[in-house]
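Notes from hallway chat w/ T.B., transcribed later so I don't forget. T.B. wanted the structure written out for a chain they're using in a teaching module, and asked if we could keep both sequence and structure tokens in one place. Agreed to drop them here.
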Amino acid sequence: MRTLLFTVGRLEFVGSRKFMIAGRNCRDELRRGDRLCVHNPADKGSEVVFCVEEITLYNRTVEAVDHGHTAGLFFPIELANKVCLGDELCGFSEP
């Protein structure tokens, strides 16, 4: 099982339907389609699930990002108000 942890360093709106979270992958390989959660205390402690739609690494679209690399993760715009700078997105996934 892969342990997922991605730090939120920057938020950027991309067009009218997507936003990007730029940050660092701090654990196992992170892949397109992985599901991540952020604990949002402003939302009464509920967890919001983020499914990675796209990953960019050095201005290229890739399928995965390794431990220690910085990257941009893309999500639907509807989730933009559920994450803040400094948050951590975390989760578990099958190998």
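Follow-up for T.B.: The beta strands are 2-14, 18-25, 30-31, 35-39, 47-51, 54-57, 60-62, 64-65, 70-76, 88-93. Might be a good example for the class.
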